[in-house]
Amino acid sequence: MVVGLGQDRQKRERARVAAGPSGKAVELSNGAADLVRARDQLLGGGQPRHPRLDAESLRAALVDLYELWLTGKGTEVGITPDSGLAIMAVGGLGRREMLPYSDLDLVLLHENMDPKRVAEIADRLWYPLWDAHIKLDHSVRTVPQALTVAADDLVAALGMLDARHIVGNPELSDRVIAGIRRDWRHGIRGRYEELLTGVRARWERSGQIAHRTEPDLKNGRGGLRDIQLLDALAIAQLTDAMPGLGPETPGGGLAQAHRRLLDVRTELHRVAGRARDQLRAQDADEIGAALHIGDRFDLARTLSDAARTVGYSVDVGLRTAGNALPRRGLARLRRMPVRRPLDEGVVEHAGEVVLARDARPQRDPGLILRVAAASAQSGLPMSATTLNRLAEDAPELREPWPKDALNDLLVLLGSGRGVIDAVEALDRTGLWGRLLPEWGAVRDLPPRDALHVWTVDRHSVETVAYASVSSTRVARPDLLALGALLHDIGKGRTEDHCVVGAELATQIGRRMGLWPSDVDILSALVRHHLLLPDVATHRDIDDPATVQYVADALEYDPQRLELLHALAEADSLATGPGVWGDWKATLIGELVRRCRVVMAGEELPEPEPVPQELLVRAAAGGVHVELSQGDGKYTYLATVIAPDTPGLLADTAGVLALHSLRVLSASISGAGESAINTFVVTPAFGSPPDAGLLRQELNRAIAGDLDVRAVLTARERDTPAAARYARAEPWLSWTPTPVAGQFILQLRAEDRIGLLCRLSAVLSGVGADVRWAKVVTMGSFVVDVFCVALGADAGPQRRSAIETAILAEVPQPAPRKTSEQERT
Asked: What share of the chain is helix, strand, coil (3-state, %, to 5)?
């Protein structure tokens, strides 16, 4: 492991030329301060005579730079080949993956030398690094001590598996490295469960890189620690270091995924100016641009692909390692695992789905789907060897697909949660894209809506899994499963994804061999998969025109209505927490019920009247406030009746907010000269206030004795400044109604304290008459719909002024820093 003279000279020259300003060499023999200056010069760059290094070149230059300094300093303090001393690098320098601000992990080895002499040499080595503020993780060991530490400490053992000799006596380093690797191989059976427990705990703490807004590139599932885990399993001779994947897979395989993760983390260090593992959202655009990937969405897609490739490889590696562990005692006497048939050409063997001995992938294009369906139904993973063989040998399915192939696909899609792992394995090995070439546009595509927690492709498969629960509620579960799979297939393009998706669904349906009438239904499902939730939550379902609109869009087909109802629920459940709830389910259910009546040719019923007791109270005048238990354990129904005066809705919503009642939904109506408003609310904590107190506070607000907006603004000052900024841009639209001067105003934005109060005050202040309104809160987001009458002056100029006033009240993303601010 001693560096040759020619290679050493080349390394020195590379480090000096890269680090030297204006081409002048920097001497690194006088202290670590020169090392820091040289590192900073490497990180700077950007000048014509000193170009900016790309991430990979930067890592290589840093490795050379640190090795150059350590070699020179080690020689200076007496660490020579015949000294009985050696410096061994672990961590990033040991792996030749030195990042700009990574810790320097070093071990000083000695051959039972005088402790005072060793301490003196160690001080002369460590103190310059400390004085230069270089993060140093160091230890001083004899060879037996190093082996003992690795045997007793799993984390230390994993770190020293990457050890590499730097300077001094190479025999000492070789004895440690060889001994640790030997002990690791021999002791893996007894340490495997501890290793697995630690890995799972790390995943639980750090989450999945592929589906995190701000992922931990080092410790998250699919990150750099997992690649080191694969290397450790390979050193233990339990698995290949790159199991189950090759360069022909989407994204380029594990080696490419590894490089991409390293590149992003390298640029993260450079942007942050310090060691950092978590990619912050505000740094993503700059890092994406530096790597020539694109914006933050392009970077997120790249990371998802890399992390899911690593994640799949780790799953294969751990499974292979578990099966390869040496057995002892009675386990050695057990019979070899039997091969249990699962389907034609498909068997179970050793806990995996594999090909039967007589299977002929070259002549059986439907074998891919049979293997996947068997895996999803049985819950057993597909063997990596089987998937690789299918990728190499299985031919393309002819068009139209054979019925058996379509049936196997439907079995796969109807397998509940089992479909998720099966499709993921097919996709990571390139087989899913062979079945559905259109999938490439949505693979690893990050969501633009913060409500979504999955990438678009994973969301689609999650929707399939949820849809399978509703299969018994529809007459055509096959079309429901296909509609769930393809409902977002049009995303990733500039056009409306519903329109594009409908066209693609027609193309795919024909290729799969569906009947023409079924192709039409599948296309309609994709085209209208947002119809029911959008109409139910954004329009007045008591209005006959609303129901008529839905019936016309679905061509009076009850089957399409039934399928869309189930798809809307599955789509919402697969989106994220809080998107589907009792309120949304009730609205969509009622809309579907009314549409069924129209489609059956019956007369549409009139809107349900306001309960008589509320009409009586409204006729009597005055202010009435009632608070009763809602449908959920922590929800309450607040009913407010008061004279319909300008600003009433703002005052009412403000009073609710002041008493920590969060509005989940609201319905605004009236009778005569009174407003009858109902709110579904939930307390931020504890129990709700007494209705009498709410009435008292509302009277004060109506009389002008309580400025609810001022109190809310004062309360909001206690909110951290960063929390006042939104993660997503607010969205607002105007849709004219058949009534002249009347519009549907829709707003989607992040919530803030008393937002409904502020919005209502804006509309009241500009003289907009709110005829009815629907408000719903989903997590930290609101989707508000107001039917407003603007009268004769309803032109674009006035609507633009109202829009500006509304947007001034909703949270906005943090302003981008100017170039001058960034330099400062």
From this structure: 55, 15, 30
Q: What is the pLDDT of residues 198-239, one digit of tens each?
A: 999 999 999 999 988 899 999 999 999 999 999 999 999 988
Q: What is the spatial distance between Cα 504 and Cα 482, in angstroms, rounded to a whole number?
A: 12
Looking at this protein, which amino acid is placed at residue 496? D
Q: Are 535 and 541 in contact (CB under 8 A)?
A: yes
CA distances from 809 to 369, 417, 702, 794 (A): 52, 42, 21, 22
What percent of the chain lies above the pLDDT cut of 70? Answer: 88
Report residue 280 as tokens: 């912050």
The rounded mean pLDDT for the chain is 85
213 and 83 inside one domain: no
**Whose CA is closest to 774, among 756, 754, 752?**
756
Cα gap 504→233, rounded to integer Å: 43
Cβ atoms of 559 and 565 closer than 8 Å: no
Give strand pairing partners of 349.
Answer: 339, 352
Report d(CA 419, CA 430) in Å as an integer: 16
What is the C-alpha to C-alpha distance for residues 383 and 299, in angstroms, rounded to an integer?
31
pLDDT in tens, 328-353: 544 444 555 678 888 888 999 888 99
Which residues, other chains included, contact 641 with Cβ-Cβ below 8 Å and sequence gap of 6+? 614, 617, 618, 622, 623, 624, 625, 674, 675, 676, 677
Instruction: Please tell me whether residues 141 and 211 are part of one structural domain.
Output: no
Residue of 421, 109, 454, 43 lying closest to 269 (CA atoms): 43
Domain that holds residue 100: 34-43+50-190
